[in-house]
TrEMBL record:
Centrosomal protein involved in regulation of centriole duplication. Required to limit centriole duplication to once per cell cycle by preventing centriole reduplication. This is Centrosomal protein of 76 kDa. Residues 522-659 form the Centrosomal protein of 76 kDa C-terminal domain. Residues 103-259 form the CEP76 C2 domain.
Length: 662
């Protein structure tokens, strides 16, 4: 492998720095002295270079150097296509992000946060050391601070996981540009935004689990000498285990450049105490107001006691917060182009109810946005609040609805009001849209009435980032509801000022910061090719077990692309197009007297074996994969569509053409 002079020089510098760090010169001198002493005797001979290298190898010096020397895996632009880099460990990080070199602006203040290892993750106490080549569960740390997001490299799960990573965070004030002056100690003391750490466990089947969500107050570094400090952080569990320790992380903080005059610890603790008192007072006043508002609501009708009016919800850390604080005006920049594409993105995040130990009712848990995005899945409440936030960002008048579906199952969905008074329901789990037309109960018996189009049965309340309204109509049935929010006799509203005091950004220090969406790190073309190759191999093996030969038709496989593209476009826009061209191309590709069969299917993951096993459960797909006949030619095509947060829509189609034999 040839290296450019610049790369060679950089490589030499890395090795030189590593040898200095190991104090290699001192160790070599010790070995040299020992070897010379051993060889001095009556028949001593001169010490050759080979003898000295053998001595270094015998004492394990060379092994130590090679074991600790690590090179950052960078994505080379001139690498050969189809030759993925070999993983250095026994697990593969499928979302490798190329590392970018950045120049530190000396006029800006930075915080260097280091994770220096984990310990006391007792759930993994009995786990054996993974063997080389063995796939194992991994831990990944995700971090968010003032609109900056990072993730660590995954490491094998263990009682003492080797989580060692450094993150360079820029400390800046809101609304300041590149030319602003450096933040001083007083300015940084007033920045109460915490560093949000989220620990995710990924198992061997790529399923993710939220282990812990922790808010770190970094301002302790302001009173540390030389701007450096190191301490242990106890991570607690989530949901029903929020009072149980999950493990301990050792965290180091370093301020760059350090403060010339460090603050005293008393000043920092006083500031933190004042912030807690101010937050507690605001929350207390809102609770008093909410109780009074609820009493007034119950006095309207006794039946209101049973309505689905949700004022507070518990997050993953067991903290009760007003539901309005879970919704924000969220702009996706260039990552999402339209409200319908936003709905498609949210529907691609998997639906999973909060896990609970034992039977009984489901554990209700509304996740903070950061925890939901890092985990990549959540309950219907998480999906609805994210979709509502994105629709608000696109300028729509959007609300989260709390109510029930068929059989009285609690559910949340999104509602948008048009300027013409039209009402549209958005199902965040599927991206389906339903136009709502209310039934008039006072209309004559023979008057035509609209048929219910949505799966929703009752609605108890609606809310967004600054509004909360409870349904006080005689019936809470969706089909009878009139969504005229200005009519106080139909919808009882909470005071916007009261909501603003605890839900507006920056109103209280207990509100979690809102992270930006991350661009996809997935290469759709490479992922599509990889998955397609794996599926071809699985189909060939399956047919071989049935004593059937497998012949692939590459041209037919290519023709399937247009159909898969049309399917995804229809899911995004609701408009079907391109089907005529696909049908015409297939007719041309299939000779007279031959039969064509195709089976498209959609997945949210990229696991070839899971996908193939699911496909074989369909008799239509099994008929294609196990096809017998004359001139049998098989085809398979995969299209992976990448969305923000590494969410992906995976479409694949199996097809076969064969000569019909009577």
């Amino acid at each position: 492998m040839s290296l450019s002079p610049e790369r060679a020089s950089e490589l030499k510098q890395i090795i030189h720095n590593h040898l200095l760090k190991m104090n290699i010169h001192g160790r070599i001198r010790e070995v040299l002295a020992e070897t010379v002493r051993e060889d001095h005797g009556p028949a001593h001979r001169s010490l050759s270079q080979a003898d000295f290298l053998r001595a270094l190898q015998h004492r394990g010096i060379i092994d130590d150097v090679m074991k600790d020397l690590q090179f950052t895996q960078e994505v080379l632009t001139d690498a050969e296509p189809g030759s993925p880099p070999k993983p250095a460990t026994h697990f593969v990080d499928k979302n490798i992000t190329p590392l970018k070199k950045t120049n530190i602006d000396p006029s800006r203040r930075h915080l260097y946060l280091q994770v220096l290892g984990g310990k006391a993750f007792l759930e993994h106490l009995q786990e054996p050391e993974p063997l080389p080549g063995q796939v194992c569960s991994t831990f990944t740390v995700y971090l968010h601070f003032r609109n900056q997001r990072f993730r660590s490299k995954p490491v094998p799960c263990a009682c003492e996981p080797d989580l060692r990573e450094g993150f360079l965070l820029e400390i800046h004030r809101e609304g300041t540009g590149e030319g602003s002056k450096m933040a001083d100690g007083t300015t940084m003391l007033s920045l109460c935004d915490p560093v949000h750490l989220v620990l995710i466990k990924t198992d061997t089947s790529s399923e993710t689990m939220l282990v812990s969500s922790y808010f770190l107050d970094w301002r302790v570094v302001l009173c540390s000498p030389n701007g450096k400090t190191c301490f242990a952080v106890e991570l607690m569990g989530v949901g029903s285990e929020c009072k149980v320790p999950a493990g301990v992380l050792t965290v180091g903080l370093e301020l760059y450049p350090p403060l010339t005059d460090t603050l005293s610890a008393d000043i920092i603790s006083t500031q933190q105490s004042l912030e807690r008192q101010r937050t507690a007072e605001k929350e207390r006043l809102f609770l008093v107001y909410a109780k009074q508002w609820w009493r007034e609501f119950l006095q309207i009708r006794p039946s209101h006691q049973s309505k689905m009016v949700k004022i507070f919800a518990q997050d993953e850390n067991g903290v009760n917060r007003p539901v309005c604080s879970y919704v924000h005006v969220l702009r996706a920049g260039r990552l999402l182009e339209s409200p319908r594409q936003a709905a498609r993105f949210v529907s691609l995040l998997a639906h999973e109810k909060a896990p609970v130990v034992g039977g009984g009712d489901k554990q209700e848990q509304w996740c903070t946005l950061m925890a939901f995005l890092c985990r990549g899945k959540g309950d219907c409440e998480d999906h609805a609040t994210l979709l509502c936030s994105l629709l608000l960002g696109f300028g729509l008048d959007a609300y989260v609805c709390v109510g029930t579906k068929a059989k009285g199952t609690p559910h949340t969905w999104v509602l948008t009001c048009g300027t013409d008074g039209s009402i549209t329901f958005w199902e965040s789990l599927t991206a389906h849209r339903y136009v709502h037309r209310a039934i008039d109960p006072d209309a004559p018996p023979l008057a035509p009435q609209p048929k219910p189009s949505s799966p929703y049965r009752t609605v108890g309340c609606v809310f967004n980032h600054h509004t909360f309204r409870a349904n006080c109509q005689p019936s809470d049935a969706v089909e009878l509801c009139v969504f005229d929010f200005q009519n106080q006799s139909r919808w009882k509203a909470m005071s916007q000022e009261a909501l603003k005091s605890v839900c507006a950004p920056g109103s209280t220090t207990s509100l979690p910061p809102v992270p930006p969406l991350c661009a996809p790190s997935l290469d759709p073309a490479a992922a599509s090719n990889q998955l397609e190759l794996e599926l071809r191999s699985l189909v060939s093996e399956h047919r071989k077990d049935l004593d059937l030969a497998t012949l692939w038709d590459d041209q037919l496989s290519y023709l399937l692309s247009s159909a898969l593209s049309a399917y995804e476009l229809e899911r995004c826009s609701g408009v079907s197009c391109g089907n005529e061209e696909f049908q015409d191309a297939v007719r041309r590709a299939v000779p007279d007297g031959h039969t064509f069969k195709g089976f498209p299917i959609h997945f949210l993951h990229r696991n070839a074996r899971r996908a193939f096993a699911t496909c074989l459960r369909s008799p239509f797909c099994e008929e294609i994969v196990c096809c017998r006949g004359d001139h049998v030619r098989l085809a398979v095509r995969v299209r992976v569509f990448a969305y923000p947060e590494s969410a992906c829509a995976v479409w694949l189609m199996f097809a076969v053409k064969y000569r019909s034999v009577l």
